[in-house]
Write a structure and sequence with these properties.
- The protein is about 25% helix and about 20% strand.
- By secondary structure, it is of the alpha/beta class.
- It folds into 2 domains: about 1-105, Tetrapyrrole methylase, N-terminal domain (Cobalt-precorrin-4 Transmethylase, domain 1), CATH 3.40.1010; about 110-230, 2-Layer Sandwich (Methyltransferase, Cobalt-precorrin-4 Transmethylase, Domain 2), CATH 3.30.950.10.
- The strands form 2 sheets. A 5-stranded parallel beta sheet has the order 3-2-4-1-5, with helices on both faces. The protein has a 5-stranded mixed beta sheet with strand order 6-7-10-8-9, sandwiched between helices.
- It is globular.
- It binds S-adenosyl-L-homocysteine (SAH).
- S-adenosyl-L-homocysteine (SAH) binds near residues 9 and 163.
- S-adenosyl-L-homocysteine binds near residues 110 and 191.
Length: about 260
Amino acid sequence: MVHFVGAGPGDPDLITVKGRRLLEGAQTVIYAGSLVNPALLSLCPEGCRIYDSARMTLEEVVRVMEECHEAGRDVVRLHTGDPSLYGAIREQMDRLEELSIPYEVCPGVSSFSGAAAALGLEYTLPGISQSVVITRMEGRTPVPEREKIQSFAAHQSTMVLFLSTGLLEELAKALVEGGYPPDTPAAIVYKATWPDEKKVLCQVSELAEAARREGIRKTALIIVGRVLSGEAYQRSCLYDPAFTTEFRKGKGQKEDGR
Ligand code: SAH
């Protein structure tokens, strides 16, 4: 069995209980060495074989999985954040299916959750934005034409950009071309939840300059949207004294008269 496990964004305490148990019982671990906190590897029992996938191809990763399967050993494949986002797990799962090797996915705390926690931010504020667009700038990995930054920017919803820290001039230009006013608030969160985490607040038009000033070139998320502005939002319906739900009978008028 191969267990794809989300390692969380950095702080080793942010792995799930299930992920931790899997590591504690692991016979073989293949971890994404570029971003997974190596402190997590100290959970592995003695004798556990450890591979850093940053130095391996897909073929080499799958070969290790195949050898372990033949020897009756389980594998923990440790991915940063949550494996479902930019994790390249589909191609591994497809190979495993071809080889009839069973697998399971244990989710993790994504860095976009870690970044919101670092900023004390709610991505979905009533009256401001009820949607989060998770995307990236095109780099060596292409992005479909219909997913241009400009087309998402037209919504002016909350946006979280992965894998884009090296392209901030182009990003800011596309965001403004698409519809965000240049003074829309933005944040750069470098290594969210790691001891050397850095947070920078700026405006969309200042993103490249702010990253340069702070020396941030990679391992960061860019967050854009008015949820960062501190402006007035509507309070939730759910916790309004006048709002009736399945669990609580509302009393009186809702505060905002709705
Ligand atoms: N599956 C991961 C993302 C992998 S892609 C997740 O769910 O978080 C790698 C990109 O994620 C990095 O280039 C960076 O944009 C972002 N990233 C990963 N860890 C991060 C962290 N601790 N802080 C900020 N950004 C991070």
